[in-house]
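Quick question: what would this complex look like in 3D?
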Amino acid sequence: MLTKRIIACLDVNAGRVVKGVQFQQLRDAGDPAELAAAHSQAGADEVVLLDISATHEKRATLVDTIRRTARQLFIPFTVGGGIRSLDDANAVFDAGADKISINSAALADPSLITLIAERYGSQAVVVAIDAKCINGEARFEAYVNGGRTPAGRDAVAWAQEAEERGAGEILLTSMDRDGTGAGFDCELTCACSEAVRIPVIASGGGGDTQSFVDVFQRGKADAALAASIFHFGLHRIAELKQELQSVGIPVRWPC
Amino acid sequence: MIAVVDYRAGNLTSVKKALNHLCADVVVTRDPSVVEQADKIILPGVGHFSVTVVLERSGLQTAIRRRIEQGTPFLGICVGMQWMFESSAEAPGIQGLGLFPGACGRFTENVKSPHVGWNSLTCHEGSRLLRGIPSRSFVYFAHSYSAPVAEATVARCEYGGEFSAAIEQDNLFGVQFHPEKSGPIGLKILENFCGL
């Protein structure tokens, strides 16, 4: 049976893993290569490295960080942040990424999705969507530039377009929940998951075991991504997986 | 020397990295004469069934066929395994190698496609490729088309129906999943192939 994936995310700024609350207040959480290996050992099904400084600051260290992180990682490895062209994607794949994640650049020029998918296959193209609830209604708007700018697009409609253009997965982050540990946005996740045929990775708000149970059952997520709760030892992935298994959610355990 | 065949379809870094980790002597090549000298051949697969046309045009297909007939161990990964069958619904009219009977098909409408993530294997007895790999081991898949269960199938997987997760006959081996991305289980499978 296809299992639900638990994905560890490394938010990287200038070669170091950091984690903020609602995209602000960054804390240092360690070395990307060491943390990626530790997460893999602990039972993570995948590792995502997001260069959160990329859009605004220099990203010269990124390729080196990817290379070091990929070297000892034998589970799927996704890299995102600041990828604006096929050339950027080439460099990231060449350094050892299995998939790239694109966000702002895809909204600015959706044909980039198709361009990268034709070269590397759809399975290698993840479209990341940062979504924010509009006025407390069940409608969600996509944001760009690390959550700084509203894109004027409905998040679910954008996910559908991304699928049509060749995206292999959607990485859907609730900006309202990001870093709070208050639970994933199941409404957002479910709306997106039912609107597309490709896998949806829920992100933002992961906290206790129940939050993961909810996003898989009510949110119909195919995978759930979290960062700070894993880095700071609040929730070991192995324990989380055993607890999910005990309530009947299929997970890769033992690994 | 293990030749990893580069047919300009996607990313071979991960396969090479995993083989290097196992201390294998690996060459990534698109040169038929290098394939002719290889002790083992790996055809990785990411991308579309139709890109295998490149193999035919470049002379790589002839070299691969010749080495296979001489008994050289050959491993097809993902689309590389699908190419060992006769054809695929992904690219009607394009011929596979036809080493195994049948055509690769799309997943049924009642499951999401592509099939992405970790799924479990049901292993058959006696496989050399899967030596030491117990049934219910998890491996990583990423594909939209799959090969039917055939006589040479050595591991099955279930996703909207059963399909061939691994196939083996004499010097021919194929895996639908990505051993280079399947953690210690995947590395063990690659190690088994390297040790043939």
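Answer marked as accepted. Chain A has one domain: 5-246.
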